[in-house]
Structures are given as structure tokens and as C-alpha cells.
Amino acid sequence: WPEQLRPHRAKFTMAMCALLCLLGMPMVSQGGAYIFQLMDYYSASGMCLLWVCFFQTIAISWIFGADKFIDCVHQMMGVRPNRFWYFCWVFFAPATMVFIFGFYIVQYVPAKYGPYVYPDWAELIGIALSLSSMLWIPGYALYYLIITPGSFKENLALGLTPNMKSRAKVSASAKSSALQMSESSAGLLSKNSSFLNP
């Protein structure tokens, strides 16, 4: 909302600084390490990031399409990744993430800080912290299926279809004439080409 906030930029910045300072105050209190450990264990590391990465991998490799993604990488870098990366994106990475997530659930251990074991209410707060970032993906998918007019099957097919316009393929000569590359970026590209094509 730049039209509303730009005239009050200094006030808004001051209010945000004050709010974030107040939210950070418990971290410097005697129980700050316990709060930090709880937040770190449940929301900042591990399963929340893995959950988001899993859905990003599925969205790119299965919904958008790994072949289209390879075309995009080729268009941006001038080097086409080999099929090894295709299999990593489509099969290996999602399967590995599902395995790690399942293993984490089976081997779940409640958070603790040294000898201190968190009470049940603190663990519920931690789980709520985790769910606050994890539920947005399936939540929006469910919301999309409900509000989109049509049958469930039509909405599901429409939701799993990328709505990006396909870009026209650019020939190598047109690309080189349109985008003049500096010597430093050309050197970087030659270094990266060995990484993309092992």
C-alpha cells in the first residue's frame, strides 16, 4: 500500500521498530533462551522448511514441469542441465523429503533445553508455531478448490495446471545478439557449465 504508507514513512518505520523491539524483549529476559530454543525447534529449523521445500519441488517438477524448468535454465544460462538433474527434481528429492519427514514423525522427541523438559502447554505452542507456517499451502489449495466454480475434478485439474504463458524459444544467435555478455559473466558461465553437466 505505497499510496497510504509513503506519506507516513517515518511514522510507519518508527512503529515497526517499536513493535519488533517489544516482540524481541522476551528474548533478552531470563527465559529468553528457553523461548528461543522452543521457536528454533518447532518453527525455524527442520520440518517447516522441509515441508515448504517439498511443495516447492512438487510445484516446479510435477506441476510446472521439469522439462519446462530445464528449458528455463537453458534460456537463462545458455547451458542445458542433463537428465541427472531431471531425475533428482522429479523423483529423488521428493522421495527423500517424504522419507525424512516420515522418519521425523515416527522418531519425534519433544523439545528440551539441556535438562529442562518443556511442559505440555509449551509444546502445544511450539506445534502451533509449526502449523502456522505449514498449513498455508494445503489451506490455500483447499480454499482454491472450494471457491473456484465447477466440479471438484475440474477444479483439481485447473489447480494443477500452470497458468504461466509459455515463452517463445530464443535461438542462440538471437540470444547472444540481444544479451551481450561481459567477460566476467562468460567466465562464470563456463565454470557453471561443468556443474550442470557432470
Present the secondary structure layout.
Elements: H1 2-5, H2 9-24, H3 32-44, H4 47-77, H5 83-106, E1 112-113, E2 116-117, H6 120-134, H7 136-147, H8 152-159, H9 172-178, H10 183-196
Antiparallel strand pairs: 1-2
Helix pairs in contact: 3-6, 4-5, 4-6, 7-8
Question: What this model shows, in words?
Answer:
- One of its GO terms (biological process) is sodium ion transmembrane transport.
- InterPro entries: Na/ntran_symport (IPR000175), SNS_sf (IPR037272).
- Residues 1-31 form the signal peptide.
- There is one protein chain.
- Residues 177-188 have low confidence and may be disordered.
- The protein has helices at 2-5, 9-24, 32-44, 47-77, 83-106, 120-134, 136-147, 152-159, 172-178, 183-196; strands at residues 112-113, 116-117.
- With 198 residues, the protein is mainly alpha-helical.
- It is extended, with a radius of gyration of 23 Å.
